[in-house]
Amino acid sequence: MSLMVRSPVETERFRAWGPHQLDEIAARYGIPPDLQESIRLVSRVLPFRVNEYVLSHLIDWSDVPDDPMFQLVFPQLEMLREQDRRSLVRLTGTDTRRSDARAAVRRIRERLNPHPSGQREYNVPSLDGERLSGLQHKYRETVLYFPGHGQTCHAYCTYCFRWAQFVGEPGLRFAARGPTGLIAYLHRHPEVSDVLVTGGDPMVMSTERLRSHLEPLLDVETVRTIRIGTKAVAYWPQRFVTDRDADDLLRFMERMTATGRQVAVMAHFSHPRELGTGTARRALARILSTGAVVYCQAPLIAHVNDRAATWNELWRTELAAGAVPYYMFVERDTGPHGYFRVPLARAVSVFQDAYRLLPGLARTVRGPVMSATPGKVVVDGVESAPDGKFFRLRMLQARDPSLVGRPFRAPYSPTASWLTELGADPSTPADIAAAVHGAAGAAPSRAGSAGQWREEHR
Ligand SMILES: *Cc1c(COP(=O)(O)O)cnc(C)c1O
Ligand code: SF4
Fold it and tell me: The pTM is what?
């Protein structure tokens, strides 16, 4: 019995399903018992969360377990090492103490590099000597804002680099309880024109809550662009269409654009299927009707979207929906990275094969991009020179603006999947080498004439 009055169109209420509902999900969608068992096992270590929309509109159950949407949200057995799986099976025995089981799970998580690049700990600005938690300021013009109430998502991507915070590891404490610190910081830093609101997913917040975090930004004249990072169009498009406060959300977005600011929804789409439902298309159309712009980005992930045809279709579909293809990312080394990793050499060919056959207007996309400690580095291609084979790289974003746009190169490797795995090119300009080797001032560590590209925190 509910006292709430619901509008007749609101047929679906958001409800998250986790490991505790696995039996129910399995019964409804017909997951075979062995697959159920492996999901249950792996979800003791890695986060698992889905919802009705993802289950019934995105996953193709006739193609499970290979289906890319199933791979996107359901933990897979091969995500854990054989010996970790075996110890988890042993722990499931009835005579294991719960504290022992928890400790074992924690040890397995520790081996999965739960805090890549120290995301939240680095670039946290301060004001009058006090650290402002929930903020990150790395590039001159852009501040990242993590509202405390938006640190979860409508479903979890198995490849998420923030997975550790979803299983209760420290992380949430870096989020901001409210915008007071952000606003004070922005008044003191007029060079910041962009605020990027991120999470988790800020769109898990009610409109009222979201407004309480964002409305004060409208009084800061120097803020010209408000970006909102979200996967809600893919995972819960009802947020923009039929949720109780969907209309309020759109009205608030309209108000933001009416102030002359650019409101950009940075939409995370991993696969063209996510744009294929009527609700997703309506969500995009409604967002665009507010005057907001939609930019699209996603990482390249084995088992999910590691084919050129998938990306070509994804970018075309985004363009057709009025959105702008923006970044193809390289996945970071965290969580079940061994399962998802795509070598840079392959990433370049997937990107180029997909890009070559795009209409010009979709060629706004850039990639494959590594969001690394010194900045965003794009792999422009592979070059065969008289002195060997190289990756052509370029900084798209850097702490030091003078490095942006500068091309450099690193020796080719068929297996490397991150900047840190590339041997350094001795001909790299010193400032780029220094930036890549360690922005915190660490000296490049040299191993022979071609040093190893290191990031300072590893
Ligand atoms: C990617 C990113 C930005 C935004 O960069 P753009 O190239 O302007 O999209 C800002 N801050 C951090 C830390 C980032 O990783
Ligand atoms: S939507 Fe983004 S933050 Fe949420 S689980 Fe997926 S990758 Fe992680």
Answer: 0.91
Contacts of 118 (CB under 8 A, 6+ apart): 457
8 Cα to the center of ligand 2, angstroms: 31
CA neighbor of 205 nearest in space, from 117, 145, 160, 163: 145
Q: What percent of the chain is helix, strand and coil (3-state, nearest 5)?
A: 40, 20, 40
| CA 295 / ligand 1 centre spacing (Å) | 13
C-alpha–C-alpha distance, residues 48 and 124, integer Å: 29
List own/partner pairs for 429-432 with CB under 8 A and 24 or more apart.
Answer: 431/400, 431/402, 431/403, 432/395, 432/403, 432/406, 432/408
> Which residue's CA lies nearest to atom 7 of ligand 1?
397
Pocket residues: Cβ below 6 A from ligand 1:
136, 138-139, 142, 144, 196, 371, 376, 396-397
Ligand 2 midpoint to CA 390 (Å) = 33
Distance of CA 103 to the CA centre of its chain: 28
Q: Which residue type sits at 225?
A: T
Q: What is the distance between the alpha carbons of residues 385 and 374, in angstroms, rounded to a whole number?
A: 26
- Over the chain (458 residues), what is each successive 10-residue block's mean pLDDT? 45 90 96 96 95 98 97 96 91 77 90 74 88 94 95 95 81 81 98 96 98 98 98 98 98 98 98 98 98 98 98 98 98 91 98 97 97 91 94 93 91 94 70 61 35 32
pLDDT tens-digit map of 254-311 = 999 999 999 999 999 999 999 999 999 999 999 999 999 999 999 999 999 999 999 9
Establish how many alpha carbons lie within 13 A of residue 281's alpha carbon, considering only the half-sphere containing its beta carbon: 9
Closest CA to 252 of 226, 231, 232: 226
Of 51, 59, 46, nearest to 16 (Cα)? Answer: 51
Pocket lining: 153 vs ligand 2, CB cutoff 6 Å: yes
162 lines ligand 2 (CB under 6 A): yes
